[in-house]
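Progress against Task 2.4 (sequence-to-structure conversion) is shown through the following example record, which the project officer requested during the mid-term review.
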Amino acid sequence: MTIGEIPLTADNQRFSIQLGGQQLSFTLQWRDEAGWLADIRDENDMPLLSGLPLVTGGDLLAPYRHLGLRGELHVIADDPGQPAPGKTSLGARHHLWYISA
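Structure tokens generated for the chain above:
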């Protein structure tokens, strides 16, 4: 098992990353009403997930095992009382962690 933080900033961003042997592309966007949302695409730029809310409290990928995504994604807050990252806390006080299967 491997655990590692995916480095983020509190800006809309798009990046590619290798997770669990899979090349994935992430797009993270701040939406005033919904908070931080992630879109995930596969190595062929095909959409896997759209509008995944970045919130604390569990594995974000658990409901989507049928898509073949390996491992777990967790948002962890420095302050456990903060359930979701705010506009400026992503990457600073809220962190995205990947845990390989």
